[in-house]
Design the sequence.
C-alpha cells in the first residue's frame, strides 16, 4: 500500500512539473508570434501569471474549486488550503494541490497572447488574480469536483478542454474584443493586415515544449499509475494525445497548402496545439481512431476559426489563442459525446458507440453553461477595469512598444541593439609601424564614379564573384528592403495576405576610376540577368573626390590597392 501511495504521489508531481514546463512553451509561442518591441512585456506577463496565479489559487481559488463540504455550485472556501485532499491508498494531498495549481495558471495565461501588444501591464495583473481566484475555480468546481452539478450529470472533461482551454479562450475572445485591434491591424474599410511575429523559431520551440508538457497535462490527469489498469490507461492517454496532435498538425498543413497555395508555418504550429486542446477532454475514453478524428476536426476548425475571428469578427488575436483554445476546446468537448467508447470510466457512452444522445446532450449543456458563466463574469471584470484604470496603453506607448514604455527595457535582444556608446580606441599607431603617408593625386583629371546595384539577395554571390573577376575588390554591401515594378510577392500569414510591398534586397556600392563604368555595368547585368521583373537596378553617380584617411591620398590614387 505504501508503494502505491508513493508511486501515485510521484506521478502527480511529475505531471505538475511537466505542466509547469508548458508555461515556458506559452511564453515562447506568444513572444515569437508577436513583434520584438513587446517581447519583454510578454515574458513579464507570463512569469507574473504563474506567480500571481499560484498565490491567488492558494489564498482562495483552490478552496472555491475543491473545498470540502462544497455544494453544486461552489466549494468550501478553504482559505490557505488547510484541508486534506489526498486519497486513501493513493496520491497525497500536497501533490494534488500543486498539480491543480499548475492547471489554474495555465488557464489564465491563455489570455495573454490574444491581448498582446496593447494591454496595460497593471490591468493584466488584476485580471490574472481574479481569473485564478474566482472565475476559473467556479466552473472547475462544477466539472472536476464530485459535488459539482455538471459532474453529477456525467459531464466528462478529462484534463481540461473546457475547464482550462475553453475558459481561457473565451476570456481571451472577450478581452481582445473589448480591447480593440492593434494600430494598423485593419484598414479603414475593415480589411485585415497581416502583422507577422518576429521569430518563428521561438514560436516553434514553444509549440514543441507545449506538446512535450501535454503528456503530463493529460497523462497525469489519471491521478494514479499504480492502481489496477492505471498504467495501461496512462499509455492509452499518451497515444491518443500524441496522435491527435500529429493529425492536427498534418491537417492544417494540408488545408493551408490548398487555401494559400503554400503550407502556412505559423498556422501549422497552431494545428499541433489544436489537436492537443481538442483531445484533452476525452483522451482517456476515445480510441486511437477517435483521437485521429478529433485531431482532423480540430485542424480544420482552427484554420477557419482563426480566419473567422480575424476577418469576420474583426477581433485581433496575434497568436490565434481564440481559435486554438476556445474553438477547439468546445469542439473537443462536444466530440466526447460522439466518440466516448468507455462506459467504465464515464457513466455515459458516445452516440457512435450506442450511447444515444444523452452523452452529447450533457456535453453540450456543459459547454453552454461554462461559456455563459465565463462570458458574464469576465465581461464584468473587463468593463470595471476599462472604466477605472483602463485596459489599453496609449497610442504613443503602443507605437514605441511595451518593453520600453511599461518596463523601461530598451530591447529584449540587447546584443542586437544598435550601440551608441563609446567604443574602446587602441590609440595612435607608433610611427615605425604606421602606413606611410603619401599626399598624392597623380591623375587629377580622372573621372570618379559611384555605382549602386540593388538586386535579389540570392544573386549577391554571383555578382560579387563577377565584380572581383574584373578587378573590383572594394565594395560596401547593405541588406535593405524595397520593391520595384513587381510590388512584392503574394504571401500569406494566418490566411491574411501580407502587404509585401517591401522585399528583402541587397545593395552593393562600388566607387571606381581605373575600371571603365561600361565594363562594370555589363558585368553586373550579365551576372544578374534572368529575364524576370525583380532582377534589380543599377544607379550611376558622379563623385567629386575620394580621400584615403590612412595615407591622405586623394582621387584616383585613393582607390588603388597597395
Sequence:
Amino acid at each position: 500500500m505504501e508503494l502505491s501511495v508513493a508511486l501515485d504521489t510521484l506521478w502527480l508531481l511529475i505531471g505538475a512539473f511537466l505542466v509547469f514546463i508548458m508555461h515556458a512553451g506559452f511564453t515562447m509561442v506568444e513572444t515569437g508570434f508577436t513583434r520584438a518591441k513587446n517581447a519583454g512585456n510578454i515574458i513579464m506577463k507570463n512569469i507574473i501569471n504563474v506567480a500571481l496565479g499560484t498565490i491567488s489559487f492558494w489564498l482562495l481559488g483552490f478552496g472555491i474549486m475543491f473545498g470540502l463540504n462544497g455544494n453544486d455550485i461552489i466549494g468550501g472556501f478553504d482559505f490557505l488550503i488547510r484541508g486534506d485532499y489526498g486519497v486513501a491508498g493513493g496520491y497525497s494531498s500536497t501533490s494534488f494541490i500543486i498539480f491543480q495549481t499548475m492547471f489554474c495558471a495555465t488557464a489564465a495565461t491563455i489570455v495573454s497572447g490574444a491581448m498582446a501588444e496593447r494591454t496595460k501591464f497593471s490591468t493584466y495583473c488584476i485580471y490574472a488574480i481574479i481569473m485564478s481566484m474566482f472565475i476559473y475555480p467556479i466552473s472547475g468546481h462544477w466539472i472536476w469536483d464530485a459535488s459539482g452539478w455538471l459532474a453529477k450529470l456525467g459531464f466528462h472533461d478529462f484534463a481540461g478542454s473546457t475547464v482550462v482551454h475553453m475558459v481561457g479562450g473565451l476570456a481571451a475572445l472577450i478581452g481582445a474584443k473589448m480591447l480593440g485591434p492593434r494600430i494598423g491591424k485593419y484598414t479603414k474599410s475593415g480589411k485585415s493586415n497581416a502583422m507577422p511575429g518576429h521569430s518563428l523559431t521561438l514560436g516553434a520551440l514553444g509549440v514543441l515544449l507545449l506538446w512535450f508538457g501535454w503528456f503530463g497535462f493529460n497523462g497525469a490527469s489519471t491521478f494514479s499509475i499504480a492502481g489496477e489498469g492505471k498504467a495501461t490507461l496512462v499509455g492509452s492517454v499518451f497515444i491518443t494525445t500524441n496522435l491527435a496532435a500529429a493529425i492536427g498538425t498534418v491537417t492544417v498543413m494540408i488545408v493551408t497548402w490548398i487555401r494559400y497555395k503554400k503550407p502556412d508555418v505559423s498556422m501549422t504550429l497552431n494545428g499541433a496545439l489544436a489537436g492537443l486542446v481538442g483531445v484533452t477532454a476525452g483522451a482517456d475514453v476515445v480510441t486511437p481512431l477517435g483521437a485521429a478524428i478529433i485531431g482532423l476536426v480540430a485542424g480544420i476548425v482552427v484554420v477557419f476559426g482563426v480566419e473567422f475571428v480575424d476577418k469576420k469578427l474583426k477581433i485581433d488575436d496575434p497568436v490565434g489563442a481564440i481559435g486554438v483554445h476556445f474553438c477547439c476546446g468546445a469542439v473537443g468537448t462536444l466530440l466526447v459525446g460522439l466518440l466516448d467508447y468507455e462506459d467504465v470510466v464515464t457513466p455515459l457512452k458516445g452516440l457512435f458507440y450506442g450511447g444515444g444522445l444523452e452523452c452529447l446532450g450533457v456535453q453540450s449543456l456543459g459547454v453552454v453553461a461554462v461559456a455563459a458563466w465565463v462570458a458574464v463574469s469576465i465581461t464584468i471584470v473587463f468593463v470595471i477595469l476599462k472604466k477605472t484604470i483602463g485596459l489599453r496603453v496609449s497610442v504613443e506607448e503602443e507605437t514605441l512598444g511595451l518593453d520600453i514604455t511599461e518596463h523601461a527595457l530598451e530591447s529584449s535582444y540587447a546584443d542586437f541593439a544598435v550601440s551608441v556608446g563609446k567604443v574602446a580606441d587602441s590609440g595612435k599607431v607608433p610611427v615605425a609601424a604606421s602606413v606611410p603617408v603619401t599626399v598624392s593625386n597623380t591623375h587629377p583629371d580622372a573621372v570618379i564614379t559611384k555605382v549602386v546595384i540593388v538586386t535579389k539577395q540570392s544573386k549577391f554571390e554571383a555578382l560579387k564573384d563577377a565584380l572581383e573577376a574584373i578587378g573590383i575588390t572594394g565594395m560596401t554591401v547593405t541588406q535593405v528592403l524595397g520593391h520595384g515594378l513587381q510590388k512584392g510577392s503574394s504571401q500569406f500569414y494566418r490566411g491574411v495576405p501580407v502587404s509585401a510591398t517591401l522585399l528583402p534586397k541587397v545593395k552593393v556600392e562600388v566607387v571606381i576610376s581605373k575600371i571603365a563604368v561600361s565594363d562594370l555595368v555589363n558585368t553586373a547585368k550579365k551576372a544578374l540577368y534572368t529575364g524576370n521583373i525583380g532582377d534589380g537596378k543599377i544607379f550611376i553617380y558622379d563623385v567629386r573626390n575620394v580621400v584615403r584617411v590612412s595615407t591622405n591620398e586623394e582621387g584616383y590614387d585613393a582607390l588603388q590597392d597597395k
Observations:
- The radius of gyration is 30 Å.
- Confidence is low (pLDDT under 50) at residues 418-423.
